[in-house]
Design a protein that fits this description.
The chain is α/β, with parallel strands linked by helices. The chain contains 16 helices and 14 strands. It binds FE3-S4 cluster (F3S). The site of FE3-S4 cluster has 15 residues, from strand 10 and helix 15.
Length: 407
């Protein structure tokens, strides 16, 4: 990979140990993926913030790096292992809290925002075509597919290295030729709400790292696309998807709905001309089978907010909870940014007894002691049994709320 003279100096250690380490990481990635050069990024999002995943070795590395390294672009952080205010309610060990706060201090020392969320796109304005270096698979796929920005599937450490240098190796999803869909997924039935997360979960496990084009029969909300992407990225290694109406719709309609005019112009292709390696059909019946898989178990924990809730999701939850009292632990995860800027909405939700949790989520926190969880997210459904050892079932948002109301 070609380096400029200034980049070579950083690699030689002239800008300090932290920057040298960051440049070494980018060099190694660039060599592996045969990048031609480093390109500037507009912002970064770093994962690997929970002490549960980092352990002491990760914490020590971050502390060392923070001695002389600072990020040079706007950089946000993924959820940590606890809610900074409600950690006692979450039953988190004080020793874990201490270590987690050390992790957070190291990131803050490097200049990284401490709004710990997997939905950084609700706090920063991402423009179409921007080059990003993002970790967190659900955010990556949202950035590429819905916001039409460009990022590779970064790890926490590679996103951090890019944030420190302000650049990323030029390869993969940063190049138009690698952003062409190669498999079509046909959904002829109308779907909504958690159906999208399940669709993502089912599709990801079938297509692994391919780039799907979803032919839908209904118009998805941005929140539904968020769940589609999170499910896809959790069971496959999908970083980009496209979507449009079924093929019988006009080309123009498909391209407008898809919103990726750049893609169309860059490749001079129309949807009808695209050649897919494979076509898969997923039906509502396939989706419904996932709902009923573990339905028989009673949940003692209900979780909504994987990925972290948007304001519109919180408003919907509030309307469904109005004048009701929850009877079991009910965690609604969102960013502290949204919680602090919508105090009345949060107060109304919490009047039901549900907890609006920030900074964290059940998957990255050391949550224990529940016999069954109910979620409305394909990603949480996929991860909670393995990451938290909690058997998990999935329902619609409304079903999750109804579950929280019964003893
Ligand atoms: Fe976010 Fe945690 Fe889900 S980080 S995407 S809420 S697993």
């Amino acid at each position: 990979m070609y380096l400029t003279k200034d980049e070579e100096k950083i690699l030689d250690g002239e800008a300090g140990w932290g920057k040298k380490k960051a440049m070494e990481i980018l060099m190694a990635i660039g060599e592996i993926y045969k990048a031609d050069k480093l390109i500037k990024i507009d912002n970064a999002h770093v994962s690997g913030a929970s002490y549960k995943n980092l352990g002491d070795a990760g914490l020590e590395f971050l502390k060392d790096l923070s001695i002389d390294a600072k990020v040079v672009v706007d950089t946000t952080l993924n959820p940590i292992g606890l809610d900074r205010i409600q950690w006692q309610w979450m039953n988190i060990d004080p020793k874990f809290v201490e270590k987690q706060m050390e992790v957070l201090s190291a990131y803050k020392k490097m200049g990284i925002s401490d709004v710990c969320t997997c939905t950084p796109y609700y706090l920063k304005d991402i423009k179409q075509g921007e080059n990003l270096s993002w970790a967190e698979s659900s955010a990556i796929v949202y950035a590429n597919s819905v916001l039409k920005a460009k990022t590779n599937r970064e790890s926490g450490i590679s996103a951090l290295a890019s944030a420190i240098i302000g650049k990323t190796p030029n390869y993969g999803y940063l190049l138009s030729e690698n952003r062409i869909p190669n498999i079509s997924i046909n959904i002829n039935d109308k779907i909504q709400d958690s159906d999208y997360g399940i669709l993502g979960f089912l599709t990801g496990s079938l297509i692994k790292g391919k780039i799907p084009y979803f032919f839908l029969s209904s118009t998805p909300l941005d929140d539904e696309l968020k769940h589609l992407g999170a499910g896809l990225a959790s069971s496959g290694s999908v970083a980009l998807f496209y979507y449009g109406y079924n093929r019988s719709s006009s080309r123009e309609q498909n391209n407008i709905l898809n919103g990726d005019i750049k893609f169309r112009r860059a490749d001079q292709r129309y949807l009808d001309d695209l050649k897919f390696d494979e076509e898969i059909e997923i039906t509502k019946k396939d989706i419904d089978e996932v709902y009923t898989e573990k339905k028989h178990k009673d949940a003692d924990l209900v979780v909504i907010g994987c990925p972290h809730c948007s304001v519109s999701e919180l408003k919907r939850i509030n309307s469904l909870l109005k004048n009701k009292k929850v009877k079991k632990d009910f965690m609604i995860c969102t960013s502290r940014y949204i919680k602090d800027s919508h105090k009345d909405l949060i107060k109304d939700i919490e009047a039901s007894g549900a907890r609006v949790i920030c900074d964290t989520c059940p998957v990255v926190s050391p949550l224990r002691g529940y016999s069954c969880a109910m979620v409305n997210s394909g990603k949480a459904y996929n991860y909670m049994p393995t990451m938290n050892n909690i058997p998990t079932k999935i329902g619609t948002t409304e079903e999750c709320i109804n579950e929280s109301l019964v003893v």
